[in-house]
Amino acid sequence: MRLVLVGPPGAGKGTQAVFLAEHYSIPHISTGDIFRANLKSGTELGNQAKAFMDRGELVPDSVTNDMVKDRLTHDDVANGFLLDGYPRNVVQAEVLRAFLAERKTPLQAALELSIASDEIIKRLSSRRTCRACGAPSEAGATKCSSCSGADLYQREDDKEEVIARRLEVYEEQTAPIISFYRSEGILLTIPAVGTVSEITEQAITALSRLA
Ligand code: AMP
Predict the structure, then answer these.
(1) CA 211 to ligand 1 centroid distance, Å
(2) Cis, bond preceding 27 (omega within 30 deg of 0)
(3) What is the pTM of this model?
(4) I want to staple 56 with a disulfide (CB 3.0 to 4.6 A). Which of 110, 148, 165, 181 is the partner?
C-alpha cells in the first residue's frame, strides 16, 4: 500500500498513521517527526528547519523534498509506505508524483481526514506530546500512555498564536493538494470524527474499496 494522509493539523493524521501503518505493515513516514528528531539531536537539517517550524511556516521545499526522496529509497518501503505531513503543497505533490513515477510505484491513495476548523483549534491547543516517543495526549494527562510513561510537553507550534498561522498556511498552501489528488482520481475522504478506532475502521473500509 502506497498512501498519503491529507488533512489539517489536528485532524489526527499522526494517530491514524500509526494504526494504518501497523495494519498494512508499512513504515509510517512523518516529515514533522523527522524534523523534530533532527531538532532534538541538533543536526544541520534540524537547524535549517527550526525557525520555520517555530513560526508555523513550511520548511522550504528544497530541504523537505530531498529529505523525503532519501527516505523513500530505504529498503523498508519495498511493500509501500504511509506518508504523514507530506506533501504539504502542490509543488511537493508534483515532486512526489514524478519521483514515484520514475520508480514505477505510483501512489494508490490520498486519504483525507476532514474536520471543522473550530474543532481543530480545540484539539491542537489541548494537545500534549510525549518527549520520548512523540505520541499525542490530551491536556491534563501528565505522562505518556503510549510508551513507557515519559513526560509530556506542549509543542512550540501547538501554542495558540502559532496554531492560527499553521491553519492559514494549511488553507493557502496545503488544501489545494486535495483538488490535485481528486483530479488524479485517488482521493478518498472520511470524516475525522468519532473514536480513534472508529476512524481507523472507516479508513480501512475506504481503502479496501481501492481497485
Ligand atoms: P507536523 O508535525 O506535520 O504538524 O509538522 C510540524 C512542522 O514541520 C510544520 O509546521 C512545518 O514547519 C514542518 N513540516 C512538516 N512537514 C512538512 C512539509 N511536508 N513541508 C514543509 N514543512 C513541513
Answers:
(1) 31
(2) no
(3) 0.89
(4) 165
